[in-house]
């Protein structure tokens, strides 16, 4: 029975039985497809005969075969434009640019009647995200950066970068040449801008949108003619900023020839008909014919280049120009409005009322008619087609889907899917297909992976569920114990769960509404979930981002941080909040962010301060748990005293120093020292810092201001003695004396400072008056007296002794030392001549004589010692044995004689000692 448009559901079977007058048949009805429509093979009733043909609900009638590869159009959305849009690419006054990876559309119509046109940003379903007035004339080109910022380049070289919400992020110019000569063409690829100046036709290359930097680029010889077309090959080879990701069950893209370029490559089509390959240091003419090429497009993997010649011929060649892949004649007198690749194997050309899809090697093509103008948005795995009423996705049918749903497929995946469908229908012999594949675990694994791979690449939720159910049934029959390849080839137990989580996320993104991001699985793998979250955060989809983080086990810190900052900035233009409202908002933010213990509140507080909400900022900062983030933030908010207290509480000396340095710059000394009065730790650190760094003025001022008079006086003394001139030194000592006298507990130090000042003054005067050979300044009182006595100036020495109240005993000691050192033996003896006992005794005289090598003079003073034992000890120590024997004999000291006998080695002395001992005995 040939049926052209049946889906084999219950109504179809009832209709078929009625038309054929069949009553309760017990055989299987096979629906034979026509015009390429794949129909379900199913039983009408029980007791059916099993057949080995795949059972499916997918329609394959819209599949188009182009050189062994199937392509299909998938309906994504019915457009919900809030106002009519003009999508004709033929008009130079209508700008339409779509961001990659299912991103938004930017639309600007300069041909309308409005005096001030609007830049409009839409979702893929036509829902308005934002709009703003376009105030700049002469727009040349629009594009989207890698971080989904809208980049607008004017003819005069000015570049404007807008957020997805229409906020101006930054603006800059493309150099002096662009401003002087203007621009005639421009390419925006990722974060690269390559422009061509007008009249001079020089290439200008800027890298980076947020922080643009001009990069070197060789200049091609265009013979003073504008380029016919231009395309940029980024450093990684992919025009999408990332390399496309393909599953192992899908056909891998062709490998690039040669190593990937380290910098960008600009491919320039010339009016003479050739192509010039421009790099940083070279511009190489490829010597091609068939041009001039009015359109060029780079494949997603960057290995193939499609060029459309003015003669209507499509040329496809490798991007390194080593091989010409194919040529395809379109017989079109007009150039295509747009040209892009659909994956790496087909080229899409758009014309006014149809789209031409040219297959690999140019063997065949498909023409897709459209009633209204279209715009295409290339993706890594297909092309989005936008019209005034719909948004579609043109893609290559994945190999997994092809193996599952191709007519008559007996692939393991198709058999598994067929069996799962039969089991759902409760067909008695439904397990026969499973029995054919469970004998080999590797076949079962292949079937499961095929079903999962196909489910990942489907948009229809019902079909996703059927494929997942088939994979789940296959997993029940997968026996790892029979796997001969070992545990490395086992099936990941979390594979199905991970696929389900990913599909739930993708289905949510694709749903119509404020999100409407028709992201495919391959696009998600290339984009990565982290970048996807960044793009969703730009649209303030915080709840969805948190769910994605939870499902994929990703860190949710940046999501919460973005939410909090958005919450703070949300009311910037509102009426000024009360202090209570600010505190309440801070509590809400702290509560929500408490689910992440290590979450920092510093960036949020910074945003609040910039939003002119100081109460909110300070409240948030007070809840920041990390002093290293809290203290600098308080400083930036001019809350220095609060910052200092937080730093002191943390005990981190580096943070305290940071506060002190900032306070030194922002506060006067008096204000700074006043603040430190009640903060002893900060006082100590400031003083130590000033001392270690040699900032004596700071140290002196700090000590004085903090009423540390004793340390301040000590410092003044140190500074005074660093002065070379005596006058400056005296001033420093006078200041030290003032500090010392402020300490009422111990007046000794003040008196000592005054005495030192007086001594310096006297030394200076006496040095000038006496013309002594020895400098006197900076000597002590004793050293000064010593100097005068050494020169025989006893009178001056006596005056100093009286002036500075030098004790008599010290003065005697000084005289003894000086006279003995200078060999003034007569003067030395004059001190004791006629005296019974000097104030210091005779022992210092003996010691001084011995120290200066005059033992005879020492014996003279030993004789004056009143104690016989002392005389004996000194004489023995000096080795004056005969004198010692005389003293011992004179005093009848038998013990002393025996001591001399045991210690003396002189024979004549020993003989005298023996006689004396006998006589005394």
Automatic annotation (TrEMBL):
<dbReference type="Pfam" id="PF04840">
    <property type="entry name" value="Vps16_C"/>
</dbReference>
<dbReference type="GO" id="GO:0005768">
    <property type="term" value="C:endosome"/>
</dbReference>
<dbReference type="GO" id="GO:0006886">
    <property type="term" value="P:intracellular protein transport"/>
</dbReference>
<dbReference type="InterPro" id="IPR016534">
    <property type="entry name" value="VPS16"/>
</dbReference>
<dbReference type="InterPro" id="IPR038132">
    <property type="entry name" value="Vps16_C_sf"/>
</dbReference>
<feature type="domain" description="Vps16 N-terminal">
    <location>
        <begin position="60"/>
        <end position="480"/>
    </location>
</feature>
<dbReference type="InterPro" id="IPR006926">
    <property type="entry name" value="Vps16_N"/>
</dbReference>
<dbReference type="Pfam" id="PF04841">
    <property type="entry name" value="Vps16_N"/>
</dbReference>
<feature type="domain" description="Vps16 C-terminal">
    <location>
        <begin position="600"/>
        <end position="906"/>
    </location>
</feature>
<comment type="similarity">
    <text>Belongs to the VPS16 family.</text>
</comment>
<dbReference type="GO" id="GO:0005765">
    <property type="term" value="C:lysosomal membrane"/>
</dbReference>
<dbReference type="GO" id="GO:0042144">
    <property type="term" value="P:vacuole fusion, non-autophagic"/>
</dbReference>
<dbReference type="GO" id="GO:0003779">
    <property type="term" value="F:actin binding"/>
</dbReference>
<dbReference type="InterPro" id="IPR006925">
    <property type="entry name" value="Vps16_C"/>
</dbReference>
<protein>
    <recommendedName>
        <fullName>Vacuolar protein sorting-associated protein 16 homolog</fullName>
    </recommendedName>
</protein>
<dbReference type="GO" id="GO:0030897">
    <property type="term" value="C:HOPS complex"/>
</dbReference>
<dbReference type="GO" id="GO:0016197">
    <property type="term" value="P:endosomal transport"/>
</dbReference>
């Amino acid at each position: 029975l040939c049926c052209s448009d049946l889906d084999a559901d219950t109504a179809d079977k009832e209709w078929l039985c009625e038309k054929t007058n069949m009553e309760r048949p017990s055989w299987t009805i096979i629906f034979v497809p026509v015009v390429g429509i794949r129909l379900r093979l199913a039983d009408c009733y029980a007791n059916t005969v099993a057949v080995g043909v795949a059972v499916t609900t997918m329609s394959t009638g819209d599949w188009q075969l182009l050189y062994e590869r199937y392509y299909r159009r998938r309906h994504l959305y019915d457009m919900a434009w809030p106002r009519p849009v003009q999508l004709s690419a033929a008009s130079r006054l209508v700008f339409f640019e779509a961001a990659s990876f299912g991103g938004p559309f930017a639309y600007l119509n300069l041909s309308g009647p409005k005096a001030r046109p609007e830049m409009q940003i839409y979702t893929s379903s036509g829902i308005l995200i934002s709009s703003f007035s376009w105030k700049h004339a002469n727009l040349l080109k629009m594009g989207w950066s890698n971080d989904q910022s809208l980049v607008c380049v004017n003819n005069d070289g000015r570049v404007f970068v807008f957020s997805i919400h229409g906020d101006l992020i930054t603006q800059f110019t493309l150099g002096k040449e662009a401003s002087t000569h203007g621009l005639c063409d421009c390419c925006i690829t990722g974060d690269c801008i390559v422009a061509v100046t007008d009249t001079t036709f020089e290439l200008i290359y800027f890298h980076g949108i947020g922080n643009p930097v001009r990069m070197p680029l060789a200049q091609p010889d265009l013979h003073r003619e504008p380029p016919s077309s231009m395309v940029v090959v980024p450093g990684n080879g992919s025009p999408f900023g990332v390399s496309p990701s393909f599953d192992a069950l899908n056909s891998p893209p062709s490998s690039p020839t040669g190593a990937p370029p380290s910098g960008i490559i600009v491919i320039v089509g010339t009016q003479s008909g050739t192509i010039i390959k421009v790099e940083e240091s070279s511009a190489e003419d490829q010597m091609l014919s068939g041009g001039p090429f009015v359109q060029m497009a780079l494949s997603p993997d960057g290995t193939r280049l499609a060029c459309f010649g003015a003669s209507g011929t499509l040329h496809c060649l490798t991007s390194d120009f080593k091989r010409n892949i194919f040529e395809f004649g379109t017989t079109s007198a007009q150039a295509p409005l747009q040209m892009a690749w659909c994956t790496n194997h087909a080229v899409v050309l758009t014309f006014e009322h149809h789209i031409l899809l040219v297959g690999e090697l140019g063997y065949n093509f498909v023409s897709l008619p459209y009633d209204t103008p279209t715009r295409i948005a290339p993706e890594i795995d297909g092309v989005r087609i936008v019209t005034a009423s719909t948004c579609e996705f043109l893609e290559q049918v994945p190999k997994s889907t092809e193996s599952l749903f191709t007519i008559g497929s007996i692939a393991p995946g198709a058999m598994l899917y067929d069996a799962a469908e039969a089991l759902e229908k409760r067909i008695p012999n439904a397990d026969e297909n499973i029995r054919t594949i469970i004998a080999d675990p590797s076949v079962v694994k292949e079937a499961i992976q095929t079903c999962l791979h196909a489910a990942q690449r489907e948009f229809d939720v019902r079909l996703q569920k059927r494929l997942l159910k088939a994979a789940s049934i296959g997993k029940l029959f997968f026996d790892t114990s029979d796997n001969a390849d070992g545990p490395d080839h086992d099936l990941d137990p979390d594979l199905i769960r991970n696929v389900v989580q990913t599909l739930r996320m993708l289905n949510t993104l694709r749903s119509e509404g404020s999100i409407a991001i028709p992201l495919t699985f391959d696009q998600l793998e290339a984009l990565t979930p982290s970048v996807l979250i960044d793009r969703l955060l730009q649209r303030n989809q915080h709840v969805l981002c948190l769910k994605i983080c939870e499902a994929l086990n990703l860190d949710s810190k940046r999501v919460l941080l973005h939410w909090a900052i958005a919450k703070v900035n949300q009311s910037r233009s509102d009426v000024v909040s009360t202090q209570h409202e600010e505190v309440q908002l801070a509590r809400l933010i702290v509560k929500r962010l408490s689910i992440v213990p290590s979450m920092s509140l510093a960036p949020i507080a910074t945003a609040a301060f910039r939003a002119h909400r100081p109460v909110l900022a300070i409240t948030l900062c007070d809840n920041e748990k990390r002093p290293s983030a809290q203290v600098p933030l308080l400083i930036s908010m001019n809350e220095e005293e609060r910052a200092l207290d937080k730093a002191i509480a943390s005990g981190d000396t580096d943070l305290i120093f940071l506060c002190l340095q900032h306070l030194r710059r922002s506060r006067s000394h008096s204000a700074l020292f006043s603040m430190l009065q009640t903060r002893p730790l900060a006082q100590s650190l400031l003083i130590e810092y000033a001392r270690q760094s040699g900032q004596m003025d700071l140290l002196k001022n700090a000590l004085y201001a903090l009423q540390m008079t004793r340390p301040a006086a000590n410092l003044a003394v140190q500074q005074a003695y660093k002065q070379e001139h005596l006058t400056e030194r005296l001033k420093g000592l006078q200041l030290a004396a003032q500090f010392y006298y402020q300490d009422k507990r111990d007046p000794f130090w003040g008196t000592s400072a005054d005495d030192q000042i007086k001594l310096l003054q006297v030394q200076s005067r006496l040095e000038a008056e006496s013309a002594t050979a020895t400098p006197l300044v900076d000597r002590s009182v004793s050293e000064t007296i010593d100097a005068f006595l050494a020169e025989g100036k006893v009178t001056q020495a006596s005056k100093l002794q009286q002036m500075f109240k030098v004790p008599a005993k010290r003065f005697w000691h000084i005289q003894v030392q000086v006279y003995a050192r200078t060999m003034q033996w007569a003067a030395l003896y004059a001190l004791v001549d006629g005296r019974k006992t000097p104030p210091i005794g005779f022992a210092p005289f003996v010691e001084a004589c011995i120290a200066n090598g005059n033992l005879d003079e020492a014996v003279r003073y030993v004789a004056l010692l009143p104690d016989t034992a002392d005389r004996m000890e000194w004489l023995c120590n000096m080795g004056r044995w005969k004198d010692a024997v005389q003293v011992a004999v004179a005093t009848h000291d038998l013990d002393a004689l025996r001591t001399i006998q045991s210690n003396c080695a002189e024979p004549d002395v020993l003989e005298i000692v023996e006689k004396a001992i006998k006589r005394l005995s």
